[in-house]
Write a structure and sequence with these properties.
Radius of gyration: 15 Å
Order of helices and strands: EHEHEHEHEH
Structural class: alpha/beta
Shape: globular
Number of domains: 1
Strand order of the largest sheet: 2-1-4-3-5
Distance between the termini: 27 Å
CATH superfamily: SPOUT methyltransferase, trefoil knot domain
Strand content: 15-25%
Largest sheet: 5 strands, parallel
CATH architecture: 3-Layer(aba) Sandwich
Mean pLDDT: 94
Number of helices: 5
């Protein structure tokens, strides 16, 4: 299965980029054991529209145009459901078990995600109600994806 991380905004050089590279490398190495064949990073430029709704709509259109047409889509938004790492791993495991060709993980920009895009997602996940920079959310998503892979490969999990 192809794993695709699609995010609004550009990741600048620095510690955030280093962490993204670290977790991407770990997923690339460990993910093969569970059937993750590749990890793609897609960056969508932030919209320059004048209003928040228009920006979110333009970013949603750009995200939809870039992610794989077939497959499952999870998005990350504070309006989503908070899940444990094990629940997140189980959700990814189900996507893998169902033979889906891809799983897209979508992160919106500073204004969040367009409501229509959220409604189209198969799962909306929240890291809580806190406002976070989307660069940090990108790291959290990759860390949780890597953690999911370790859980799915029966690596000892310290919360059990």
């Amino acid at each position: 299965m192809r794993l695709c991380l699609a995010a609004v905004g550009r990741l600048k050089k620095g510690p955030e980029q280093e962490l993204v590279a670290r977790y991407s490398d770990r997923i690339g190495k460990s993910g093969k054991a569970v059937g993750i064949t590749s990890l793609d990073h897609l960056e969508i430029p932030e919209s320059r529209a004048s209003g928040s709704a228009a920006r979110k709509q333009q970013e949603a259109d750009a995200l939809i145009a870039r992610i794989p047409e077939e497959g499952v889509v999870f998005c990350f938004d504070e309006r989503g459901k908070s899940v444990s790492s094990r629940q997140f791993a189980n959700a990814i495991g189900k996507v893998l078990d169902d033979g889906n060709p891809s799983l897209s993980l979508i992160i919106g920009g500073p204004d969040g995600l367009d409501p229509d895009l959220r409604a189209r997602c198969d799962r909306v996940v929240s890291f809580g109600e806190l406002t976070m920079p989307h660069q940090l959310v990108r790291i959290l998503v990759l860390e949780q994806a890597y953690r999911a892979v370790t859980i799915l490969t029966n690596h000892p999990y310290h919360r059990d």
